[in-house]
Amino acid sequence: MVFRxxxxxxxxxxxxxxxxxxxxxxxxxxxxTAAAAVPPAESFRLEGPWxxxxxxxxxxxxxxxxxxxxxxxxxxxxxxxxxDQVVVNATLVHGPNAxxxxxxxxxxxSGIWLDVRDEIATSLRESGGSAEFAxxxxxxxxxxxxxxxxxxxxxxxxxxxxxxxxxxxxxxxRWFLRGLLSGPAATDPGQARRLIDLFRGTVVHxxxxxxxxxxxxxxxxxxxxxxxxxxxxxxxxxxxxxxRGPEITETR
Length: 252
Hints:
By secondary structure, the protein is of the alpha+beta class. The protein has helices at about 25-30, 40-45, 115-125, 190-200, 240; strands at about 1-10, 10-15, 50, 60-65, 70, 75-85, 85-95, 95-105, 130-135, 140-145, 165-170, 175-180, 205.
């Protein structure tokens, strides 16, 4: 499903696009060294991404997807992916570039991004891709190249080379936010700047429910466009369940 924000006479309006869119943790307390420590709140709240408790009143228009409130300025498309009637991620598209955003539950006293980064790198290498560790505006990153899907599965024409991907992550208070940049922005910092700003402006609404680490925070379709809310499944998706899908799929 694809949504665009257009300029109306009396303000911004969210409209649905008809185009196709691919759209307390006991375990952590028992093993506090299992993941990197969450950085001090000031290190990621000064510029975002934001926790709902610290989100600035900056006038930025954001689309309410439940656990994620994502900026969607004019000229940026919002696409949501649905698996088994559950919204699993949001993708913001600007020209030929895209950033897929997902939020997961995390332990109270430790972060998970460094462990997740290692696991994604291992998975990509085992599937024939390459992965290199790097540093970026939010700290550790992962830069990867993956074989494209076959043409009969929606991939590019035969003979197309590996697709570049760039993974970024932020550990927040009891949540973890992951971004996946694709398109030229995966390798061009200039083209990535707009997407990085959108990621930085995202607000995470973790909620107070007890959730297992790496469980996907619940998302929903935008209220402005929702005609029938998706019914959540008894088992919510986790980071491992999504590992072989969205993070190695380029969104255009």
